[in-house]
Chromate reductase (Pedococcus cremeus), 190 residues
Amino acid sequence: TTHKVGYFVGSLSQDSINRTLSKALVRLAPSHMEMTELPIGDLPLYNRDLDGSYPAAAQALKDAIAAVDGVLFVTPEYNRSIPGALKNAIDWASRPWGQNSFARKPSATIGASPGAIGTAVGQQHLKSILSFCNSPQMNAIEAYIQFKPGVFGDDGSVSDEGTEDFLRTYMHEFNEFIARVLQVLPPDED
Ligand code: FNR
């Protein structure tokens, strides 16, 4: 079966290494996986006063999440947590109360940093947020990517075979995880 996956890139930077990583993941995803970006750059700051009249960009985000089978977070670590822009997007999508877009939506997290910790601490924060948002999360395999110049091309090509194999396996595992979650939590059971 074809699974649709929406992916968040947690960085707004033009030359984001996490955006480059996302391109590699799109390339290495199983051929029957449809990958669409869930853009976060045009969202205003979340304000619950707007819960009754969602801004267009925020409603579009909720609609886009509803249309996919799973969500993938490709994010940097900022100050040992997640970037504010990503948290803002999660806050929008988790509301209005009772219409949390992440409920029962399978998710996986991955991220790249220049340092050896490879976003591990930031991802722990993200996993905690997603737990509260009731998203079934792929616990294994974990993916903490140390971004080494020369390994990733701007087009998402990966020159190191071990890294490429790992990322391909990661996407394969996420595809299997989504299939398992959909079996026990069919989307229309609410
Ligand atoms: C960082 N960086 C960083 N790196 C890290 O490994 N742990 C951290 O806690 C932080 N904190 C942090 C805060 C802020 C505000 C910035 C701008 C940067 C460095 C970060 O990993 C590096 O800039 C990456 O290139 C960011 O990812 P993108 O934007 O290139 O995808």
Observations:
- The mean pLDDT is 96.
- The pocket of FNR is lined by residues 11, 13, 16-18, 76-80, 113-115, 117 (CB under 6 Å).
- The chain has one domain: 3-189.
- The first strand starts at residue 3 and ends at 9.
